[in-house]
Design brief:
Layout (H helix, E strand, L loop, with lengths): L1 H9 L2 H6 L9 E8 L10 E8 L6 H10 L27 E4 L2 E4 L5 H4 L6 E4 L6 E3 L2 E2 L2 H9 L20 H10 L7 H5 L12 H12 L7 H8 L13 H5 L6 H22 L1
Parallel strand pairs: 1-5
Antiparallel strand pairs: 1-2, 3-4, 3-5, 6-7
Helix pairs in contact: 6-8, 8-9, 8-11, 9-11
The structure holds iron/sulfur cluster (SF4) (2 copies) and FE2/S2 (inorganic) cluster.
Length: 277
């Protein structure tokens, strides 16, 4: 304590204030970005590298914003600004999924200090399991089409007063809440080996939605329709149980549990469904 006080007392405060301000950023963030000008221009696929000023607590989106402000590569070439998608900036909308340093994740919640603490190069690529639009933007329509296939909603036609909704037990609410946090970001599809050009696999996010809606007292009215949708080509039987999906889900949704629960339900329906017809 005494030492600290001595050091503070000895600090040459006046001299420091008189020193010229150094505007050169003390640290630069090195980005290597995969680019492509348009879906129909595969020949424009390339890597470009940028160095941007480091800001405390910056995330990958802030680094991309710096590139957008000064789109000049490390070898001094002026280029078109890099484009990407992001909306909420707080890991809610699911729009900013990218492959960062080889792992799919949200650019808004990926901190530069965490992935490149010593100034390592950060590689940024678009997801590969979705059609490319441009640079880091992909088309996630497939995710939303999958939700339609499994009827991931509860039908309310609005023609009459429904009154208070059915009551759910505390236990059921606790089971359903984690499942409801899916933001259709696509990370689980990107990581799943069963989702590829030669497969129609619907993917774990839609399977999880079937569990979510079938657990709801009103949603259960269409339980069998949802299960039937998963018993067709590209349905739950295509899951190889590699568990990559659960590893990358930013919302920590228990996807493998959901797959097991729904697989049991589809098996029951397959074996005993005729009894219920
Ligand atoms: S368990 Fe494996 S195969 Fe099944 S959805 Fe997840 S990543 Fe894909
Ligand atoms: S289940 Fe997780 S990884 Fe998959 S789309 Fe939903 S939030 Fe994203
Ligand atoms: S910007 Fe919405 S999840 Fe990243």
């Amino acid at each position: 304590m005494a030492d600290t006080e001595t050091n503070e007392a000895e600090a040459p405060k006046k001299k420091k204030a008189a020193e010229p301000v150094d505007e050169t950023p003390s640290r630069l963030v090195h980005l290597k970005i995969r680019r492509q000008d348009a879906a129909d221009k595969p020949d424009s696929k390339r890597w470009e590298e940028f160095k941007v000023p480091y800001l405390p607590n910056m995330n990958v989106i802030s680094a991309l914003q710096q590139v957008q402000k000064y789109p000049k590569t490390t070898d001094g070439k002026a280029v078109a600004p890099v484009v990407w998608e992001a909306v909420c900036l707080e890991e809610v909308c699911g729009a900013c999924s990218m492959v960062i340093n080889g792992r799919v994740r949200q650019a808004c919640s990926t901190l530069v200090d965490t992935i490149a603490p010593n100034g390592e190069t950060i590689t940024i690529e678009p997801m590969t399991k979705f059609p490319l639009v441009r640079d880091l933007i992909v088309d996630r329509t497939r995710m939303f089409e999958n939700l339609k296939k499994v009827k991931a909603w509860i039908d309310l036609d609005g023609t009459h007063e429904l009154g208070a909704g059915p009551r759910e037990s505390q236990e059921q609410q606790e089971e359903r809440y984690p499942l409801s946090r899916c933001m259709t970001c696509g990370c689980c599809l990107e990581a799943c080996p069963q989702v590829n050009d030669s497969s129609k696999f619907i993917g774990p996010a839609a399977i999880n939605q079937v569990r979510l809606f079938n657990l709801h007292p009103s949603g259960a009215m269409h339980k069998n329709q949802r299960l039937d949708a998963l018993m067709t080509d590209g349905g739950i039987a295509d899951c190889g149980k590699a568990q990559n999906c659960v590893e990358v889900c930013p919302k920590e949704i228990p996807l493998v549990d959901s797959i097991s629960v729904v697989a049991r339900e589809t098996t029951k329906r397959l074996l005993f469904g005729w009894l219920l017809k």
